[in-house]
Amino acid sequence: MPKCIIDGREAEFKAGENLVEVAKTVGVEIPVFCYHPGLSVVAQCRMCAVEVEKMGKLQTACSTPATEGMVVHTQSEKVKKNQKGVMEFLLINHPLDCPICDKAGECDLQDNSYKYGDAYMRYTEERRTYLDLDMGPVIKKNMNRCIHCTRCIRFGAEVAGVREMVAVQRGNNTEITTVDGRALETDYAGNYADICPTGSLTLKDFRFKKRAWYLKKTSTVCEGCSRGCNIELHQENNVIHRTLPRENQQINKWWICDEGRFNFRYVNASDRVSTPHALRVESDWTSAIETARTAVAGKKVALLVGTDLTQEELALVQQFGAKSFPGAMIAHFGTSGVKNSSDDADADALLKRKSKTANLHGAEKLGIPAFESLPAGVNAVVVIRGGRAVLPSLGGVTASVGIGVFAGSQAAGFEVVLPGLSFAEKEGTVVNSAGVEQKFKRAIGPVGKSKSLSEILMMWNFQGTSPHASQNQKVTAAAGGV
Amino acid sequence: MAKILSQKFYDEMNKLEPRYPNKVALMLPALHAAQDETHWLSSEVLEEIAAYIGCHPAQVREVASFYTMYNLKPVGKHHIKVCTNVSCALRGAEEIVGHCEKRLGIKCGGTTLDRKFTLHEEECLGACGTAPAMMLDNDYHENLTIESVDRLLNELEAK
Amino acid sequence: MNIMHPDGGGGVATENLFAQHFKNDEARFIDYYLNKMGGYTALKKAFGMSQDDIINEMKKSNLRGRGGAGFPTGVKWGFIPKQSAKPKYLVCNADESEPGTFKDRDIMRYTPHLLIEGMVIGGFAIGAHHGYIYIRGEYTREAKLLNEAIDEAYAKGYLGKNILGTGFDFDLTVHRGAGAYICGEETALLNSLEGKRGEPRVKPPFPAQSGAFAGPTIVNNVETLAVVPFIVNRGGDWFSGLGKIERSGGTRLISVSGHVKKPGVYEINAGSMTIREIIYDLCGGVLGDKKLKAVIPGGSSAPVLTADEIDVVYDIDPLMKIGSMMGSAALMVVSEDYCVVKLLGRITKFYAHESCGQCTPCREGCKWMEDVIERIEHGHGREQDLALLLDIADNINGKTLCALGDAAAGPVMSFVKKFKSDFEAHIRGGKCPNV
């Protein structure tokens, strides 16, 4: 493999790799703003300029591919002066908003200013300001904070496929905006806030909710569809405050759709049923389980399982059914119109899939058939799901027991509701539409009095011997993450 | 949506199309041709151009707002642009601008109340040898003096 | 023969190529071009040459780009690959927006067929079948005259399909800009041609590899292309010999303006005159016979010269040696009648206004410099402002995505250093010492 030298360290590289990436491999950090590995290179911010021997001017590392024998210096006086210069230029118009800005603590401008800038300000002229137009329900724009890196423009045009975020005017007056106060059209608007290196584009949903440094992060997998994008759930005190995408070059690169990003809201929602209910009245676990057993005793039962359950949970239900209701139908439900994996397909040009649950393909792998209709004579149904699978229509047959996550309005349809865990409260395995098995961790403990499926079924007098994992076994990390 | 631009506009664009490998390259010619008709480029006109080219309306706006010759706000019937760059400044452009402001009763960037004149300072027009110079709508007027400016304004005001 | 117009402009080269036709409203028609200028004979000759032959003549001619960069044209044409999957393009940069420059305007309104013929020959030499003339939007009349000349050329078969029966096709289209100095930068020009914002591109790739519509492209100045017929007809060596110094061939059109008695476009042998001779012998001296204060030798981007520095030969290399540049060959003369602080303020305001806004140093730094100089000009300067200006300029110079940053920093550094006392007088006295 070809080699170059960065700050005296020998670095191997692949043909075409730029110096920012090559430097990382030998532990050298070159600061950037406009550069993002998932977007085209524009070399505009000039922050990454480094000295390359035999080339007179400083060269932007993001746009300079490494060549055999290239000698690079990232710590020279010239490089440092330029870094200070760029930081000074970026800060002359940037408002001192840190105390009230959501981005504080995870802000590239703060970090690079601290590491590469100067501690004093020479600017005494008037600062440039803009009026902000609304951009719709997802993103809050604060143009005064913008450093014109154009990552958002490039994301819209190159990744989201819609040229809605543009620069208008020119020079010092350049404004980045949607036009005429239009709302952002893309289903991937949340990513604008992820890639913005300042607090210029932030999530309205997260605004003023929590300082970033209080949040604990867990790597897990999105349950929004069968793509299985890798995500992080950020929580404090058992409340999830936001979802961020996690890089996985095979599945979702750096991105996530808005549906997946905001899916977590139901986990801590106030209308979630997190205590057992018997005959629509709040109850305790023992009574509720007893009521449930009575409700199905002597009846012809069908077990319907959501494709938002993990492989471990689905296997448990199979064993439970075989033991407690031999011969009963076990069928899966999830997304109306998408019964089998053959019905599943891309729903857009980027990440979204038609199946709106994470484990349709896993359920099929376990041999569970899709739910079509209830067999003749069935007069009791037990519905087991996570929080996403769309409840099927039962054609008038009583919904006897509901195990899983339900909103109040949904719970009213069941005789007994035994509150289960959402994807954020459990660990397990799901199989995405590409057949990739991904294990994920739990981010928070059970909400309210909710219990895991294995615990619920055990209380129903069943000891599970799941081949995948018991509730006590530590689960390894989901693919691609920490 | 009802079309604002005339058939003449579309005919002119159709004639130009074969000269370029794609329609986006017609952006600047289209903006010029549209402004020739409508005098300034409203959001509706920009949307119509976007529909013709087949691009997002934001794309038309980002291009139109980059160039100084495209008026994205209404301008007066006559647009006066006096060059105040180096050579014109050296040859008395500031007096010319000051005189126009006094005569028209507006400051640079403004429009007269009867909407007849809009006055702007302009960058180098490439008429440095015949400075001071200005653009009046599409025409150059060079070797300006207070008197020649007055004659020109008299003519325009009389119409 | 010398040509001197009473109101300014003329030609004093040993052999004028343009001057005898300028200011003649008949010269632009194809009949004049064919009958009085030997029009389109070079094209016929070129069709009998190979592409390499033509490019070799261009190299021998020592023709250096007349737009401002001064890059050897023959070498540039040699960069175009012989084979290309994408169509190749020849683009004429007629954006002429460098303050002080007005020579291409005369070429386009008086001798447009020189440009047209030069482009067909150029297209043939590099294998391009499409040419665009990107003309600044303000030159409305010149664009109209160009289009009329192009129509004439099509009608007589010098443009279009199967030109002169050779099987070579070449289409020429005039494409108007819309008011952006930055579109004179070749990659910004190409973006503008493609219907986008006129923002310069990251280089590499260079236009010869990927230019207009991703195809191999050569971008040349108007004057550069307009002398091509002469080079083909008379040979590269002849053209090189017209230049009086090393590595600079041909005649040059210089635009002289400002405080001179006879401003205008003058044609001289390259490297044949000093700045002093141009001002005092060619242009009649300083306006009002005032004392000379400063000379901006190459458009406003060129570092300023004091009255003591005008004995330099007016050409590319000599000016570079003394730390300035010939640029677009636009000489602006400043007498003691105008405040240099105010002048620098106006120049810096221009660059701040024309900055495209992409890269940090230019977008933020040019405006900052404009504001500081304005403060100094109006008597609110502080002692540290001069060091501040020089440091801002240093943080811009050589650090930007394109040369506009350098063009803004150069004047600031040169004016502040060479006219330090004028700036200090504003800061300490609170007003201009001249006025």
- By secondary-structure content and strand pairing, the structural class of chain B works out as alpha+beta
Helix coverage percent of chain B:
40-55%
Main sheet of chain B, how many strands, which sense, barrel?
Answer: 4 strands, mixed
> The CATH topology of the largest domain in chain B is what?
Glutaredoxin
Based on CA atoms alone, the radius of gyration of chain B comes out at 18 Å
Provide the gyration radius of chain A in Å: 27 Å
Report the count of strand segments of chain B. 4
Oligomer description: heterotrimer
CATH architecture of the largest domain in chain A: 3-Layer(aba) Sandwich
Task: Report the mean per-residue pLDDT of chain A as an integer.
Answer: 93
Strand order of the largest sheet of chain A: 14-13-19-18-17-15-16
Q: How is the main sheet of chain A built? A: 7 strands, mixed
Strand composition percent of chain B: 5-15%
Mass-distribution shape of chain B: elongated
Give the largest chain-chain interface (CB within 8 Å): B-C, 41 and 59 residues
Poorly predicted regions of chain B are none
Report the count of strand segments of chain A. Answer: 21
Number of domains as seen in the coordinates of chain A: 3
Q: Can you walk through the features of this model?
A:
- The complex is a heterotrimer of chains A (482), B (159) and C (435).
- Chain A has three domains: 89 residues, Roll (Ubiquitin-like (UB roll)), CATH 3.10.20.740; 91 residues, Alpha-Beta Plaits (2-Layer Sandwich), CATH 3.30.70; 183 residues, Rossmann fold.
- Chain A contains eleven helices and 21 strands.
- In chain A, helix 2 crosses helix 3.
- The radius of gyration of chain A is 27 Å and the shape is elongated.
- Chain B is α+β, with helices and mostly antiparallel strands.
- Chain B folds into two domains: 58 residues, Arc Repressor Mutant, subunit A (Orthogonal Bundle), CATH 1.10.10; 81 residues, 3-Layer(aba) Sandwich (Glutaredoxin).
- Chain B contains seven helices and four strands, in the order ααααβααβββα.
- In chain B, helix 2 packs antiparallel against helix 3 and helix 3 packs across helix 4.
- Chain B is elongated and about 50 Å long.
- The mean pLDDT of chain B is 97.
- Chain C has 435 residues and is an alpha/beta fold.
- In chain C, the strands form two sheets. A seven-stranded mixed beta sheet of chain C has the order 1-2-8-7-11-9-10, with no helix packed on it.
- The two termini of chain C are 43 Å apart.
- Chains in contact: A-B, A-C, B-C.
- The interface between B and C is large, with 41 and 59 residues.
